[in-house]
Every structure is written in C-alpha cells, then in structure tokens.
Design goal:
Helix 3 packs across helix 4, helix 7 crosses helix 8 and helix 9 crosses helix 10. The radius of gyration is 18 Å and the shape is globular. It has ten helices and six strands. The chain has two domains: 75 residues, Arc Repressor Mutant, subunit A (Orthogonal Bundle), CATH 1.10.10; 108 residues, no CATH class. The two termini are 32 Å apart. It is of the alpha+beta class.
C-alpha cells in the first residue's frame, strides 16, 4: 500500500502531469492535442503519459494511427478507497465471524497493498485467487487485452498466465482480443479447471 501511494504521489508531483490529468478529466485526448494545449513537445508529453499509465490512472486506446488517452476514473476511485480505508481495515470490517476459505486463502497469498505474493499450487486455492481477481471486472463491460493485463498487473506481474487461467476457469470470455466477464454461475470452481 505504501509503495503504491508513494509511486502515485511521485507521479503527481509534476506540474505537467497534473495539467495532463486535468485535461484528461474533461475528455480523452491525443498526444498531439495535449502537446498543443500544454505548449510541450510530443515526446515530453508521451513521457508524462507513460508515468501516469505506470501508476494506472491513464489508459490509452488506438484508433487508426492515433492513440487516445483517458483518465481512468475507476482506478482513481479504487486508489482513493485504498487511501481512505486501508486494506487490513477493510478486510477486518468485512470479515465474517467464520472466515471463509477464500478469505483464508487471500490472507495467505495477498499482501496489505493488494499484491499477490505468488500463485498457490493447489487448484482450490488458485480458484480463490482467481475469484478475487475478478472483482476488478464489471459485468457487461468489454475490455481490451491491454485493459485486462493492466487490471491483473495491479496485483501480479504475470498477466499472461493469469489471463489464461481466468479464461480456463470460465470467468472471462474472449473473442478477437476483446474480453468480458462471464456470469458467476458459469465459473468453474477450484478443482474443476
């Protein structure tokens, strides 16, 4: 948690990046538009966007030869919740009297900052971790492969393996590099995959 916040505040401790966030708060923009509005060179704007993408608050999509950048409001909301209510406190408040299997598993494999230390070898425990990862995906929303990777990488570096696991457990579906969340009734449980 502390590391995530430190990276966020480092990213925001630059006047140009703050101005970019302000411009993206209104609508998505290209590098060229941002460079013109900020009176900066395009490579400089690209550098600032890369820093903001690295902390997960800016997304990009390609349209022809242009990349459109947008503020990820959901990521900002998740970050503010983490700042205002630390993970341990959230878990303590939501923890039922009899801790569930998933909660016990997550306590063993997920640290206070929301990072997955390593994947469990047990299929049943792996299923608990995958169900936890699915909290970042909304029903009815379509995701690009990049968005899926970004969501997973907020918790673990190996997005390719985890993405395949989510598909294998029938939690995510994929067609033409577009992904969507499947209904929980279709998910394979721990040892079934």
């Amino acid at each position: 948690m502390t590391e995530t916040l430190l990276e966020f505040f480092k990213a925001m401790a630059d006047q140009s990046r703050l101005r970019i966030v302000g411009l993206l708060a209104n609508r998505e923009r290209s590098v060229q538009e941002l460079a013109t509005a900020l009176e900066l060179k395009e490579p400089t704007v690209s550098h600032h966007l890369a820093v903001l993408k690295a902390v997960g608050i800016v997304t990009a999509r390609a349209e022809g030869t242009t990349r459109w950048h947008a503020l990820d409001r959901d990521a900002l909301e998740r970050l503010s919740k983490r700042v205002l209510q630390p993970e341990k406190e959230r878990i303590a408040k939501s923890k039922p009297r009899d801790e569930s299997f998933d909660d016990k598993t997550l306590r063993a494999f997920v640290d206070a900052s929301g990072k997955l230390s390593h994947m469990p070898a047990s299929r049943k425990k792996r299923g608990a971790v995958l169900r936890w990862l699915m909290r970042d995906f909304e029903v009815g929303r379509r995701y690009s492969e990049r968005e899926v990777n970004d969501a997973i990488q907020r918790h673990h570096w190996d997005s390719a393996t985890l993405r395949r696991e989510l598909i294998g457990h029938k939690m995510l579906a994929r067609k033409d590099r577009i992904y969507w969340r499947l209904p929980e009734s279709e998910w394979k449980q721990g040892g079934e995959a």
